[in-house]
Structures are given as C-alpha cells and as structure tokens.
Amino acid sequence: MNRVGAVLALAGGVGFLVVGVLHGSLPQDGGDVLRHVAMRSDWSLVHLVAIGCALAWVGAFTVLARSLPDERSRGVGRLAAAASVAGFAAFIADAAIDGVALKRVADAWAATGQESLFQVGSVIVRVLEGTHAAFITWFLGLPFLLMGVAVVLGGRWRWAGWVGAVAGGATFLGGVTRYLGVLEVPEPVLFAGPILVSMLWLAATGVLLWRDS
Fold it and tell me: Does this model's pTM top 0.85?
C-alpha cells in the first residue's frame, strides 16, 4: 500500500507543479482576463488535469496517515486526510468555475464583444477571488500543515515533517489574509514560495514512502 501512496504523492506533487506552470497567473484587468482565457485552447484541459493531480495527493495523504507509527500521529494524519477531502471539494468548485464557466463566457465574449458577456465575465472573476481563497486555505494550506505535524509526531522523518508543517502553515496564513482582505499575499508569491515547497515536500514524501515499503 505504501508504494501506491508513493506513486500518488509523486504524481500529485510533480503533476500539480507542471500544471501550475501551464496555468500561469491571470492578468489583473477584467478585459485582459477574458482575452487571455479566450486565447487558451488548453484552458479547460489544464484544469481537468489539475483536478486529477489534486485527487492523487488526497489518496497519498490517506496512505501516509495509515503508515504513521503510532496512534497519536495517525490521528493527526487522519485529520489531515479528512481536511484534504474537504479542501478538494473547494478546489473542484474553483476549477469548474475557472476552467469551464469562465472559459465559455470568455469565448462567447471574444466572438461577439457583447457588453453583457463582459459583465458576466467580470462577476465570475470576482467569484474566483473567493474560491481561490477557499482552496488556498483549506486545500493547499491546512492539510499540509496537519500532515507535517503528524509526520513530526511520528518521529521517522521529523525533518520532513517540519518542512511540510511550515510550508503548509505559511500557505494557510496566506489564504486567511485573502479571506480577511488584510496584508493580502499576492498569489504569485504564494505559488512560488510555500506552495512550491509543499509540492516538492509531497514528492519527497513519496520517495520516502517508496523506500520504506
């Protein structure tokens, strides 16, 4: 079972990094966002692949939680796995809005130039501000914080646990600032900083799981 978790961790961590690079950052202006999305023929596919990568690491978290050596660490690990499932739901919602709804409105606006479609697109972009805050906090942040703590408590890979906990905690705080609208950390900083570390940590955890299997 550990080897299954190892493969899922590697696929989820590395795959999500690649998808993140392919996705890139959205422009700030509403019209620029719609033009950018309309020009991307791969936009919906990128989001679909991202969902698959994210699902892989939900599975990896479940296996990792079961592999921990004592009841205390397994308990925190199970909490992390449960948090990843809840966060995954928020991520699916965000990916569906960004990858499907926004894409269809952007394509229609690019073809017709209708002002009403521009207004709808602007509303969708605003909605995405909320869904981004949700999945950054509850999917990219809290589960990694909890799983890092669980690994520290387990004692086998304590150094790795601290890396995961710190990266997850930083991402969680970055997401909370987006909720509160105070000292908001720009998304490019989050994704190039603690989220990047979390994905590398996930892949490294996969290697450790494989070695211990």
Answer: yes
Angle at 178 between CA 197 and CA 35, to 5 degrees: 85
Contact between 169 and 114 (Cβ < 8 Å): no
Cα-based distances in Å from 203 to 54, 64, 208: 13, 12, 9
Instruction: In whole angstroms, give the CA distance from residue 193 to residue 200.
Output: 11
As given in the structure block, the two tokens for residue 127 are 């909605």
Q: What is the full DSSP assignment across 164-209?
A: HHHHHHHHHHHHHHHHHTSSPPPHHHHHHTHHHHHHHHHHHHHHHH
Give the whole-angstrom CA distance, residue 91 versus residue 99.
Answer: 11
Could you tell me the two tokens for 45? 């596919």
Tens of pLDDT along 15-27?
Answer: 999 999 999 888 8
Q: What residue type is assigned to position 135 of the chain?
A: F
CA angle (54 as vertex; 63, 141 as ends), nearest 5? 85
Cα R_g (the chain), whole angstroms: 18
The pLDDT tens digits of the residues spanning 141-189 come to 999 999 999 999 987 888 889 999 999 999 999 999 988 887 677 777 8
